[in-house]
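HUMAN: Now follow token order:
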Amino acid sequence: QVQLVESGGGLVQSGGSLRLSCATSGHIYGFEDMAWYRQAPGQPRELVANITTDLHTNYADAVKGRFTISRDSDKDTIYLEMNSLKPEDTAIYYCYGDLRTAVRLIPLWGQGTQVTVSV
């Protein structure tokens, strides 16, 4: 069974930093694009950042200059370094990946990790 497992969430004061990790397992062919999304209470899930297999990155305007997505291609693991955190960054953060199979790509999600930024 293919799994994406996030870790590194927690409670941090405004201005602080956290590093999220998303480890993958149970796959054969690896992943194409991978990404971090977040969902705040009462809000739709939104893209935070994504990274391609050749390490091109894209960021939501709200996090540009503060967050950095990276990828260990050998391990199909991605990270999200979050600096200068703000209370509005509070959300559940989800890892996303396009799983390669022999015939097509399958979208997969992790279970999410809570990030809470206090004032």
About this structure: The CA atoms of residues 61 and 100 lie 29 Å apart. The chain has a mean pLDDT of 96. The radius of gyration is 14 Å.
